[in-house]
Structure formats: structure tokens, C-alpha cells
Hints:
heterodimer; A: alpha+beta; HIT family, subunit A; 28% helix; globular
Amino acid sequence: xxxxxxxxxxxxxxxxxxxxxxxxxxxxxxxxxxxxxxxxxxxxxxxxxxxxxxxxxxxxxxxxxxxxxxxxxxxxxxxxxxxxxxxxxxxxxxxxxxxxxxxxxxxxxxxxxxxxxxxxxxxxxxxxxxxxxxxxxxxxxxxxxxxxxxxxxxxxxxxxxxxxxxxxxxxxxxxxxxxxxxxxxxxxxxxxxxxxxxxxxxxxxxxxxxxxxxxxxxxxxxxxxxxxxxxxxxxxxxxxxxxxxxxxxxxxxxxxxxxxxxxxxxxxxxxxxxxxxxxxxxxxxxxxxxxxxxxxxxxxxxx
Amino acid sequence: xxxxxxxxxxxxxxxxxxxxxxxxxxxxxxxxxxxxxxxxxxxxxxxxxxxxxxxxxxxxxxxxx
Lengths: 303, 65
């Protein structure tokens, strides 16, 4: 059972889920719990010989009813590959899966915020290589979501709308765009190749998006992640987080997806060290304009 | 937020419900033997997604076609 403690010095909640200490850690391929269950073989987390997309309650939850939820989203029954390599129609369907889970979990009275994310690569803590993501339904408003609401207040309106307008006006950090979605390395990126994928129209969440917008979002996310993989010609680790409105009915927020990739070169990682952890100020080795140019070129190489 | 979540099937019965339409998908729910919920999302048109490599597991024996 998970629990929480309030850290007075930081003014934030800390979640304790001690059962996760024993969670499955980088198992051999033939023991992957996210594979389909083969006939005659031990039952995996998914008791079917084949499936399309599956969501299930995390065996090692960070949050659980009656105070939230933790779910696993398995993108495909194919053990190999990645979000970037999904067939486009499957990636489009995944947007609907995210939408359905946001809508259903957000309707629960114990849930204030739904966080959809993917950790890709051992560099960011992946413990299972099978293509998958996670969903945490928070029983509280987490600090980052609160900061985004504060940014709205500071900018006198929807902050992502204001920032998108600035990025599109300048254009030098934009790496991908279509009629519904734009992707850019933000002006004050905290990671070398941090990238934001933002809905052009004000959409608080996936629920307000049209089917065409969801298709565009899938295309943008795949364009960016494929560009990441081309950037250094290697599997590119990242944290991908879907930012949406809190589910408390306030209806503030603007759907966008943020990537936090830790690589600064093909072989060097950006670490959160003394200044970042002790002072909260990120020190960057590369300008966002330069990383945006490199990423845009890598995305463009895909045609 | 919209309506409350639908009723879950009985815990541990291992069976799936009939499913409900959600956009282009069919949502089928079951409760695993240990009581955890599992939801399958399939194409509403009954087809399967292609694989990135053009292969897929055969439903009968789990092997690649």
C-alpha cells in the first residue's frame, strides 16, 4: 500500500510505494511480463495469445484506490520496437486509449490529475523494454501541474497558447508542424533536446480534440521520436509526458506533450547534479536554437 | 468531467464483458484472477493493426506468421 508524507521544507508531497522495490527489473526477453501469453507457457500480465493495445492495473502501484491509480499501457504485443516504430494507425489508436483513460480516471472523485507518460531507455529508469507507457491518477494536484496554472496567471491567460504564438512567430526552434499541432524546443529548455508538442487550438485535454487533431498529435509524436532516434543514430532515451487539465473541473490547462531526453551527445548524459538539485537552476551546455536545428534536420531526414 | 466509469465485471471471473464503442475502438474489460482490472482496446472494424515489420502473432499458436 502506498502512502504520502508532506515535505514541509519543499512544500510538496512525497509518495512512498515500498513494494516497488521488488518490481520486475530488466527481465530476459523470454520472461517479459508484457508479452502475450504463449500457449503452454506461464501466464504473463496479459492472458491472451495476441492483443492490440492493453491497459491494466500496475502490479506495483505508486497510487491505488481509494487514493488514485497506477496503470500500465502496452502499445503492442510485439516485444520489440518502440513508440516511434509503431504502425501509424496504432499510434493514432493509442491517442484514443489515452483519451479514454483520462476521461474515465478523471471522473473518479479521488482523482485530481491524470499523468500519462513513457520512460524510454535504461538511462531514464525503464525496467521493461517492451513498448509501453504508464498512467498515474493522482489524488492531488502535483507540483508541475500547479506551476503550469501559476504560469497561466503570470501570463494573463493560457501559458501554452502564449508561448506557442511566440515560438511560431520566431520559428527558429520549431522542429515540426501541421495544421493542428506544432513541435518546438522551448526558449528556455532545461534539457539539451527538450521538445514540446503543442495543440494549436486551445484544447484543455484529449477529450476536447477532434479526431483529426488526435491523428495529428500521433503524427507529431512519432515524427519527434523518430527524429530523436536519427539524431545520434541510436535508440534515444526520453521521458515523454502528456500535460493536460486537472480533472477537478477547473478546466484550466492546455494539452501538450513534453519530452525530457537526457542525452547531450551520443555518449554523454545530462545529469541533475548539485546546481540542479541543490538550487533548482538548470545549467545547459547547448543553446535551444542549436539543438532545435539539429533535431529539425534529423526529423527532416525521415521525409 | 463526464459520466462515472462503468461497472466492472466480477473480480476474478476471467471473462471479458461484451465491450463498448469508444471512437474507433472497442473497449473490453475483465478482472484478472488477482483482482486487478485489465482493458483491451481493439479496432471497432474488427481488423488488426499491421506490425511495423509486417509480421504478427497468429492468434491460435502465438507464433509469427
